[in-house]
Amino acid sequence: MAILEAFLEKVELKKKNSSEIPVLRDKWQLCLSSTAPAPPQVRKPGLEHQLTLISSCQPISSHSRRSYLWTPERKQVLEQTMISPFLVLAIGTCLTHSLVPEKEKDPKYWRDQAQQTLRNALKLQKLNTNVAKNIIMFLGDGMGVSTVTAARILKGQLHNNPGEETKLEMDEFPHVALSKTYNTNAQVPDSAGTATAYLCGVKANEGTVGVSAATQRSQCNTTRGNEVTSILRWAKDAGKSVGIVTTTRVNHATPSAAYAHSANRDWYSDNEMPPEALSQGCKDIAYQLMHNIKDIEVIMGGGRKYMFPKNSTDVEYELDDKARGTRLDSLNLIDVWRSFKPRHKHSHYVWNRTELLALSPYTVDYLLGLFEPGDMQYELNRNNVTDPSLSEMVEVAIKILAKNPKGFFLLVEGGRIDHGHHEGKAKQALHEAVEMDQAIGQAGTMTSLEDTLTVVTADHSHVFTFGGYTPRGNSIFGLAPTVSDTDKKPFTSILYGNGPGYKVVDGERENVSMVDYAHNNYQAQSAVPLRHETHGGEDVAVFAKGPMAHLLHGVHEQNYIPHVMAYAACIGANRDHCASASSAGAPPAGSLLSPLALLALSILF
């Protein structure tokens, strides 16, 4: 206690009016009353970043962007006092132990929790074999298992909890499987070939969308005859309403596999296509969005510039040349979109959040929302006036689609998880994942388990990890508790196998305690220098709830996923089991599928 009092006296001399003083004193006194072991000895300077838990009892609203990370005010106090790193780590370690809830020290707590989980599992023996009137697919682009775990911790810490015990919305889904993500020609996949798998039901080559593996990337003349349709098309053909919501551009890899057939995922507009492909009759992806399936009810995301003639001024960024239109064919695809809509229907094009939220969804038949020239802004950077959140877009989309008595299919992509990882910006990536989790929760409140199949998965992983024997409640963006035993420098828990975070200073690994690793755009250190971090090749998780969700189990090829969704909804080619239904998507009384049909499906897959 004498050590802390000396420190506090120094703080008071430096900053007499600091409200942090009683907080520090109270926290340390609480810590002394616990039985914390001696903190590890760390001698490197600059470890004041480790004092992240002082604010752990301060209320944080659900809308706050601050996590366990230090606040600027606390940072200033520490910097002004030139506090010793040992003292900081000692306080942080002690406070970490004080965060262990009393109930968790009692074995009965864990036994009761396990027994309740067991009772819940036993209830699942009664399978939900209803017809899925609605299907919602959430795709976290690049959301590997390590990202899911880190996002879970971040979600908890944003609500002022240690984080590890927190549950994501997808954690509550009763059925979980693993998906093998490789492309037909790639061990570590890209988002285009994987999108073709989980939307169209066939595996494909990397870089291609909506075509079979007979199509070679960038070879337009290998496209014709090799097109494959998606579950969005199957749902539309069955009379359901359909929608696409993404935080990337609407003609990016994931959404484009739902409606386009392209030998190259990068053919966003005709401006990005080679003359040879244009002369051979291939169409760009934005063009296909408007022409291939003309009656998609909801389209929301970014990608505005690909819809307008080249050099057209953007409505939002008038002085930004990079935001200008790109089309060489001089088409205004917004006008084309409008021209395909029946005159007696209510069609709306919006480009900002204010316009979107001013709509009455129950009177909207068709909605096109393009909120950025390219991809949408990261959630942490989002302008609350011009750009809607993913949750807000999902809410509007479901309200529009749910009016159809035959149900709907909705594809929702948290696409910028992937971009954050590629840039080595783990904080951006994880906040994107937390926002997608909120959108999953929003969808859950608006639908029913009885008639809505919800599937959450990823297309691939990333070489993202976190470790370093961090203590319970350690900031997910914080330091490991010890320095490297090789170069004697601290390191963050989050690291990448490769990427732009590789930095050498004076011939040695950068000392992260000398930089603001809590910054939104901090690039976590990587083992191998690359301009862009790469995907990972391991399996990804599939979470499912609702009708026929139990068919997602074990380890599956990624292309199995849309076959399950279609089977559950009685759409697509495999509908023999739906003969007893009065119409596709309309469940008969009681269970739809016979035990014999279930057995046959399990044998097939």
Automatic annotation (TrEMBL):
Predominant place of localization: membrane
Reactions catalysed according to its record: phosphoethanolamine + H2O = ethanolamine + phosphate; ADP + H2O = AMP + phosphate + H(+); a phosphate monoester + H2O = an alcohol + phosphate; ATP + H2O = ADP + phosphate + H(+)
Subcellular location: Cell membrane; Extracellular vesicle membrane; Mitochondrion intermembrane space; Mitochondrion membrane
A cellular component term, taken from the record's GO annotations: mitochondrial membrane
Pfam families assigned to the protein according to its UniProt record, in alphabetical order: Alk_phosphatase
Record bears the keyword Signal: yes
Residues engaged in binding Zn(2+): D141, D418, H422, D459, H460, H535
PROSITE patterns: ALKALINE_PHOSPHATASE
Membrane protein topology class: Lipid-anchor; GPI-anchor
Residues that coordinate or bind Mg(2+): D141, H252, T254, E413
GO molecular function: ADP phosphatase activity; alkaline phosphatase activity; ATP hydrolysis activity; inorganic diphosphate phosphatase activity; metal ion binding; phosphoamidase activity; phosphoethanolamine phosphatase activity; pyridoxal phosphatase activity
Cofactor(s) demanded: Zn(2+); Ca(2+); Mg(2+)
Annotated cofactor note: Binds 2 Zn(2+) ions. Binds 1 Mg(2+) ion.
InterPro entries: Alkaline_phosphatase, Alkaline_phosphatase_AS, Alkaline_phosphatase_core_sf
SMART domains per the UniProt record, alphabetical: alkPPc (SM00098)
Primary enzyme class: hydrolase
Family, per entry: Belongs to the alkaline phosphatase family.
Subunit structure and binding partners: Homodimer.
Protein name per UniProt: Alkaline phosphatase
Source species of the chain: Erinaceus europaeus
Gene name as annotated: ALPL
